[in-house]
Amino acid sequence: MIDETVEEIEQMQTHSSSVVAVKAATALRELTEGEYPTVEEFVVTLERNASALKRANPSHASLQNAQRDIVAAVKDADADSVAEAQDVLADAIDRVVDRIENAKSEAAKNGAEVFEDGMTVLTHDYSSTVLEAVELAAQEGKHLEVYVTEARPRYLGRKTARVLAGVDRVEPHLIVDGAAGHFLDECDRVVTGMSCIVDDTLYNRVGTYPIAAAAGDVGVPMTVVGSGAKIIEAGFAFENEIRSPSEVMREPAEGFTVENPAYDATPTRLLDTVVTDEGVREF
Fold first, then answer.
1. What pLDDT shows up at residue 123?
2. Alpha carbon 60 to its chain's center
Protein backbone atom coordinates (compact mmCIF):
# COMPACT_ATOMS: atom_id res chain seq x y z
CA MET A 1 0.00 0.00 0.00
CA ILE A 2 2.83 2.42 0.76
CA ASP A 3 4.31 1.74 -2.67
CA GLU A 4 0.93 2.58 -4.18
CA THR A 5 0.81 5.80 -2.16
CA VAL A 6 4.28 6.74 -3.40
CA GLU A 7 3.10 6.34 -6.99
CA GLU A 8 -0.08 8.28 -6.25
CA ILE A 9 1.84 11.16 -4.66
CA GLU A 10 4.12 11.34 -7.68
CA GLN A 11 1.01 12.00 -9.76
CA MET A 12 -0.69 14.43 -7.35
CA GLN A 13 0.17 17.58 -9.26
CA THR A 14 -3.19 19.31 -8.76
CA HIS A 15 -3.43 18.87 -4.99
CA SER A 16 -2.30 21.24 -2.28
CA SER A 17 0.82 20.33 -0.33
CA SER A 18 -1.21 19.80 2.86
CA VAL A 19 -3.33 17.15 1.15
CA VAL A 20 -0.18 15.41 -0.08
CA ALA A 21 1.42 15.57 3.38
CA VAL A 22 -1.65 14.07 5.06
CA LYS A 23 -1.87 11.25 2.53
CA ALA A 24 1.81 10.41 3.00
CA ALA A 25 1.54 10.47 6.79
CA THR A 26 -1.56 8.30 6.78
CA ALA A 27 0.14 5.74 4.53
CA LEU A 28 2.59 4.95 7.33
CA ARG A 29 -0.31 3.62 9.41
CA GLU A 30 0.10 0.35 7.52
CA LEU A 31 3.24 -0.28 9.56
CA THR A 32 1.27 -0.31 12.81
CA GLU A 33 -0.31 -3.62 11.82
CA GLY A 34 2.67 -5.64 10.60
CA GLU A 35 4.88 -8.06 12.51
CA TYR A 36 8.57 -7.29 13.05
CA PRO A 37 11.14 -9.38 14.92
CA THR A 38 12.76 -6.40 16.70
CA VAL A 39 12.20 -2.73 17.41
CA GLU A 40 15.33 -1.95 15.43
CA GLU A 41 13.98 -3.66 12.31
CA PHE A 42 10.67 -1.86 12.72
CA VAL A 43 12.44 1.51 12.89
CA VAL A 44 14.56 0.67 9.83
CA THR A 45 11.40 -0.26 7.92
CA LEU A 46 9.75 2.99 9.01
CA GLU A 47 12.75 5.04 7.90
CA ARG A 48 12.90 3.27 4.54
CA ASN A 49 9.22 3.88 3.82
CA ALA A 50 9.36 7.48 5.03
CA SER A 51 12.32 8.11 2.72
CA ALA A 52 10.39 6.66 -0.22
CA LEU A 53 7.43 8.91 0.52
CA LYS A 54 9.68 11.97 0.78
CA ARG A 55 11.32 11.16 -2.55
CA ALA A 56 7.88 10.98 -4.15
CA ASN A 57 7.65 14.78 -3.93
CA PRO A 58 10.84 16.42 -2.63
CA SER A 59 9.50 19.93 -3.32
CA HIS A 60 6.73 19.79 -0.69
CA ALA A 61 8.09 21.04 2.61
CA SER A 62 4.94 19.92 4.45
CA LEU A 63 5.44 16.33 3.33
CA GLN A 64 9.15 16.39 4.18
CA ASN A 65 8.59 17.87 7.64
CA ALA A 66 5.69 15.54 8.45
CA GLN A 67 7.68 12.42 7.61
CA ARG A 68 10.71 13.70 9.51
CA ASP A 69 8.64 14.46 12.62
CA ILE A 70 6.91 11.08 12.60
CA VAL A 71 10.17 9.16 12.31
CA ALA A 72 11.80 11.33 14.99
CA ALA A 73 8.92 10.67 17.40
CA VAL A 74 9.32 6.92 17.07
CA LYS A 75 13.10 6.99 17.37
CA ASP A 76 13.06 9.35 20.35
CA ALA A 77 10.56 7.13 22.18
CA ASP A 78 13.15 4.34 22.38
CA ALA A 79 10.38 1.77 22.77
CA ASP A 80 10.97 -1.48 24.62
CA SER A 81 8.80 -3.53 22.27
CA VAL A 82 7.53 -3.50 18.69
CA ALA A 83 3.98 -3.11 19.94
CA GLU A 84 4.96 -0.03 21.92
CA ALA A 85 6.81 1.43 18.92
CA GLN A 86 3.73 0.85 16.75
CA ASP A 87 1.57 2.66 19.30
CA VAL A 88 3.99 5.58 19.26
CA LEU A 89 3.83 5.62 15.45
CA ALA A 90 0.02 5.68 15.46
CA ASP A 91 -0.02 8.56 17.94
CA ALA A 92 2.61 10.47 15.96
CA ILE A 93 0.62 10.10 12.75
CA ASP A 94 -2.56 11.37 14.43
CA ARG A 95 -0.70 14.29 15.96
CA VAL A 96 1.01 15.32 12.71
CA VAL A 97 -2.17 15.03 10.61
CA ASP A 98 -4.12 17.05 13.18
CA ARG A 99 -1.41 19.71 13.18
CA ILE A 100 -1.37 19.98 9.39
CA GLU A 101 -5.13 20.26 9.09
CA ASN A 102 -5.49 22.73 11.96
CA ALA A 103 -2.62 24.86 10.68
CA LYS A 104 -4.26 25.14 7.27
CA SER A 105 -7.59 26.20 8.79
CA GLU A 106 -5.97 28.72 11.13
CA ALA A 107 -3.91 30.16 8.28
CA ALA A 108 -7.10 30.57 6.24
CA LYS A 109 -8.83 32.33 9.15
CA ASN A 110 -5.94 34.74 9.50
CA GLY A 111 -5.80 35.15 5.73
CA ALA A 112 -9.45 36.16 5.62
CA GLU A 113 -8.54 39.27 7.59
CA VAL A 114 -6.40 40.46 4.66
CA PHE A 115 -9.50 41.02 2.55
CA GLU A 116 -11.61 44.15 2.88
CA ASP A 117 -15.11 44.72 1.56
CA GLY A 118 -14.98 45.87 -2.06
CA MET A 119 -11.37 44.80 -2.57
CA THR A 120 -10.02 43.64 -5.91
CA VAL A 121 -7.29 40.99 -5.72
CA LEU A 122 -5.21 38.89 -8.07
CA THR A 123 -4.28 35.30 -7.30
CA HIS A 124 -2.15 32.76 -9.12
CA ASP A 125 -2.58 29.01 -9.60
CA TYR A 126 -4.55 27.00 -7.03
CA SER A 127 -4.25 27.21 -3.25
CA SER A 128 -6.86 25.52 -1.08
CA THR A 129 -5.80 27.76 1.83
CA VAL A 130 -6.30 30.95 -0.19
CA LEU A 131 -9.66 29.66 -1.41
CA GLU A 132 -10.75 28.94 2.15
CA ALA A 133 -9.64 32.43 3.19
CA VAL A 134 -11.68 34.01 0.38
CA GLU A 135 -14.73 31.91 1.30
CA LEU A 136 -14.45 32.92 4.96
CA ALA A 137 -14.13 36.59 4.00
CA ALA A 138 -17.23 36.31 1.80
CA GLN A 139 -19.15 34.62 4.62
CA GLU A 140 -18.30 37.63 6.76
CA GLY A 141 -20.13 39.80 4.23
CA LYS A 142 -17.17 41.07 2.22
CA HIS A 143 -17.62 41.55 -1.53
CA LEU A 144 -14.52 40.67 -3.55
CA GLU A 145 -13.45 40.85 -7.17
CA VAL A 146 -10.77 38.27 -7.96
CA TYR A 147 -8.55 37.98 -11.02
CA VAL A 148 -7.27 34.42 -11.41
CA THR A 149 -4.38 33.44 -13.67
CA GLU A 150 -4.74 30.21 -15.65
CA ALA A 151 -1.40 28.95 -14.30
CA ARG A 152 -0.25 27.34 -17.50
CA PRO A 153 0.56 24.72 -18.60
CA ARG A 154 -1.61 22.67 -16.20
CA TYR A 155 -4.27 25.38 -15.98
CA LEU A 156 -4.88 24.93 -12.26
CA GLY A 157 -6.18 28.49 -12.13
CA ARG A 158 -9.24 27.33 -14.01
CA LYS A 159 -10.03 25.10 -11.03
CA THR A 160 -9.67 28.13 -8.75
CA ALA A 161 -12.02 30.21 -10.90
CA ARG A 162 -14.65 27.46 -10.92
CA VAL A 163 -14.58 27.20 -7.14
CA LEU A 164 -14.82 30.98 -6.72
CA ALA A 165 -17.73 31.11 -9.17
CA GLY A 166 -19.76 29.20 -6.60
CA VAL A 167 -19.00 31.59 -3.73
CA ASP A 168 -21.54 34.33 -2.97
CA ARG A 169 -20.20 37.91 -3.00
CA VAL A 170 -17.16 36.90 -5.09
CA GLU A 171 -16.81 37.97 -8.73
CA PRO A 172 -14.04 35.93 -10.38
CA HIS A 173 -12.25 36.69 -13.67
CA LEU A 174 -10.03 34.13 -15.38
CA ILE A 175 -7.05 35.62 -17.22
CA VAL A 176 -4.04 34.22 -19.08
CA ASP A 177 -0.78 34.37 -17.14
CA GLY A 178 0.73 37.01 -19.42
CA ALA A 179 -2.17 39.38 -18.71
CA ALA A 180 -1.42 39.68 -14.98
CA GLY A 181 0.57 42.87 -15.46
CA HIS A 182 -2.27 44.37 -17.48
CA PHE A 183 -4.78 43.91 -14.66
CA LEU A 184 -2.54 44.70 -11.67
CA ASP A 185 -3.40 48.41 -11.85
CA GLU A 186 -6.98 47.44 -11.02
CA CYS A 187 -5.96 45.36 -8.01
CA ASP A 188 -5.55 46.32 -4.36
CA ARG A 189 -3.46 43.29 -3.48
CA VAL A 190 -1.93 40.06 -4.82
CA VAL A 191 -2.71 37.01 -2.66
CA THR A 192 -1.16 33.60 -3.34
CA GLY A 193 -0.41 30.36 -1.56
CA MET A 194 3.07 28.94 -1.17
CA SER A 195 4.94 25.71 -1.58
CA CYS A 196 7.46 26.86 1.01
CA ILE A 197 9.69 29.72 2.13
CA VAL A 198 13.32 28.80 2.69
CA ASP A 199 15.41 31.56 4.27
CA ASP A 200 14.73 34.61 2.06
CA THR A 201 13.13 32.83 -0.90
CA LEU A 202 9.51 31.95 -1.64
CA TYR A 203 9.03 28.86 -3.78
CA ASN A 204 5.68 28.61 -5.48
CA ARG A 205 4.07 27.59 -8.76
CA VAL A 206 6.04 28.92 -11.74
CA GLY A 207 4.79 32.35 -12.74
CA THR A 208 4.72 33.68 -9.18
CA TYR A 209 8.00 35.57 -9.52
CA PRO A 210 7.04 37.72 -12.53
CA ILE A 211 3.72 38.56 -10.87
CA ALA A 212 5.53 39.59 -7.66
CA ALA A 213 8.04 41.67 -9.63
CA ALA A 214 5.31 43.41 -11.62
CA ALA A 215 3.24 44.02 -8.48
CA GLY A 216 6.24 45.61 -6.82
CA ASP A 217 6.81 47.85 -9.82
CA VAL A 218 3.24 49.21 -9.79
CA GLY A 219 3.01 49.39 -6.01
CA VAL A 220 0.52 46.59 -5.37
CA PRO A 221 1.30 44.75 -2.10
CA MET A 222 1.62 40.98 -2.18
CA THR A 223 0.51 38.59 0.57
CA VAL A 224 1.33 34.90 0.81
CA VAL A 225 -0.94 32.61 2.85
CA GLY A 226 -0.03 29.16 4.15
CA SER A 227 0.93 26.97 7.08
CA GLY A 228 3.77 28.18 9.26
CA ALA A 229 5.36 24.74 8.84
CA LYS A 230 6.17 25.77 5.28
CA ILE A 231 8.53 28.50 6.50
CA ILE A 232 11.91 26.86 6.93
CA GLU A 233 15.05 28.50 8.25
CA ALA A 234 17.45 25.64 7.56
CA GLY A 235 17.73 21.92 6.93
CA PHE A 236 15.66 21.78 3.74
CA ALA A 237 16.95 22.05 0.20
CA PHE A 238 14.13 22.82 -2.21
CA GLU A 239 14.16 20.61 -5.31
CA ASN A 240 12.37 21.97 -8.35
CA GLU A 241 10.43 19.59 -10.53
CA ILE A 242 10.85 19.62 -14.29
CA ARG A 243 7.57 18.53 -15.78
CA SER A 244 6.96 16.72 -19.06
CA PRO A 245 7.28 18.78 -22.29
CA SER A 246 3.97 17.23 -23.40
CA GLU A 247 2.19 19.51 -20.94
CA VAL A 248 3.38 22.49 -22.96
CA MET A 249 2.79 21.14 -26.47
CA ARG A 250 1.48 17.88 -27.85
CA GLU A 251 3.43 17.77 -31.11
CA PRO A 252 7.15 16.79 -31.12
CA ALA A 253 9.66 19.57 -30.50
CA GLU A 254 11.89 19.63 -33.58
CA GLY A 255 15.05 21.71 -33.36
CA PHE A 256 14.30 23.17 -29.92
CA THR A 257 13.90 22.12 -26.30
CA VAL A 258 10.73 22.56 -24.24
CA GLU A 259 11.46 23.67 -20.67
CA ASN A 260 8.72 23.13 -18.11
CA PRO A 261 9.73 23.86 -14.49
CA ALA A 262 6.97 23.44 -11.93
CA TYR A 263 8.09 26.18 -9.53
CA ASP A 264 10.04 29.42 -9.47
CA ALA A 265 11.86 31.40 -6.77
CA THR A 266 10.64 34.79 -5.54
CA PRO A 267 12.78 36.92 -3.17
CA THR A 268 10.84 37.63 0.01
CA ARG A 269 11.81 41.30 -0.32
CA LEU A 270 9.06 41.48 -2.96
CA LEU A 271 6.45 40.38 -0.42
CA ASP A 272 4.45 42.67 1.83
CA THR A 273 3.23 40.06 4.33
CA VAL A 274 3.17 36.32 4.93
CA VAL A 275 0.08 35.08 6.79
CA THR A 276 0.26 31.73 8.59
CA ASP A 277 -1.54 29.92 11.39
CA GLU A 278 0.95 31.59 13.72
CA GLY A 279 0.11 35.14 12.66
CA VAL A 280 1.39 37.75 10.21
CA ARG A 281 4.98 38.36 9.20
CA GLU A 282 5.85 41.65 7.52
CA PHE A 283 8.69 42.10 5.04
1. 98
2. 7
Q: Which of 202, 226, 247 is nearest to 114 (CA)?
A: 226
Q: Taken in order 82, 84, 85, 86, is the CA torsion positive or negative? A: positive
CA distance 6 to 283: 37
- By CB atoms closer than 10 A (0-12, 13-18, 19+), residue 115 is buried
The distance from CA 32 to its chain's CA centroid, rounded to whole angstroms, is 28
Residue type, 190: V
207, burial (CB in 10 Å: exposed 0-12, middle 13-18, buried 19+): buried
Helical segments of the chain, H only: 2-10, 17-27, 39-56, 61-77, 82-112, 128-139, 156-165, 180-183, 208-218
Whole-model pTM above 0.85?
Answer: no
What's the length of the chain? 283
Q: Would you give the distance in Å from CA 81 to the centre of its chain?
A: 37
- pLDDT tens by residue, 101-123: 899 999 999 999 999 999 999 99
Look at residues 15, 215, 250 and name the one whose alpha carbon lies nearest to residue 127. 15
SS3 category, 235: coil
What value does the CA radius of gyration of the chain take, rounded to a whole number of Å?
Answer: 20
- Above 90 in pLDDT, residue 57? no
Query: Residues with Cβ < 8 Å from 225, sequence gap 6 or more?
Result: 107, 108, 110, 111, 114, 127, 129, 130, 133, 191, 192, 193, 194, 274, 275, 276
Are 164 and 134 within 8 A, CB to CB?
A: yes
